[in-house]
Amino acid sequence: MWYQILQYFKFLFKSSNQHGVHSPFVYDVITTCFYDKTTYPDYDSINAYRKALLNNKTKIKVTDLGAGSQVMGQQDRLICSIAKNAGTTKKRARLLFRLTQYFKPSNSLELGTSLGIGTYAMGLGHKKGTVTTIEGCPNTAAFSKKNVEAVNAKNIEFITGDFKNNIENLTTNTYDFIFFDGNHQKEATIHYFETLLKTANNNTVLIFDDIYWSKGMTEAWETIKKHPRVTVSIDTFFWGFIFFRTEQVKEHFIVRV
Q1: pLDDT of residue 71
Q2: Fewer CB within 10 Å: N-end or C-end of the chain?
């Protein structure tokens, strides 16, 4: 916790808004997508899905395959507690919606379904695209699949199992949008990144959740930024964005969202 607080103050000192950005591509992403204040009708669907989870008193046994929760230590957890403490927030779900609406990815991949809030938002953002989501905990995966299907989200495909084993089977695919929202450990994060590099194209965007979760996650983020294929990175504190656009000069941006 203290590590995150210290890093946040450093972030505030270094960060800027769109006025400190001179890349036309990054400037457009920030102004048109990040800072978009439009109240989209689909926000109501996302809010309703999330609210239902916050009111759900069902208890499930959770198997943490990654770093686990910093708040909840027990295996038996209430859905409402997971939604409150570990689920995608309203602000971030809306940003995920805007991101897939902006980039219009044909194929998206999510590592870490959790309760499916972010998954649902990604699917709504670009209904013509397909979202493949992987969840390691069987009980969480089953619960989320049932709930997402109940709201008639037909463009989402579910995979249950360990990330490492499953992404090896996906390396022949091409993904335009990959959201890393699962195992918050340095070695695992770098391994997932290096494995899924094979699936990335010039316009692919990668998003890493909680890049300041721990010193190890920040080190993973710094390692990924320096990879030769990476041209542009955006640090928003809670998420880190990676781009491979060969037409861009290699540059790192720190932006308040």
Answers
A1: 46
A2: N
- Evaluate whether 105 touches 127 at the Cβ level (below 8 Å): no
Q: What are phi and psi of 84, to 5 degrees?
A: -75, -45
CATH number of 2-55+89-254, picked from 3.40.50.150, 3.40.50.1820, 3.20.20.80, 3.90.170.10? 3.40.50.150
Whole-structure pTM over 0.90, yes or no? Answer: yes
Other Cβ atoms within 10 Å of 167 Cβ, number: 21
User: 127-183 pLDDT, tens per residue?
Assistant: 999 999 999 999 999 999 999 999 999 999 999 999 999 999 999 999 999 999 988
CA 132, CA 158: separation in Å to the nearest integer?
6
147, 218 contact by CB (below 8 A)? no
Closest Cα partner for 98 from 251, 219, 257? Answer: 257
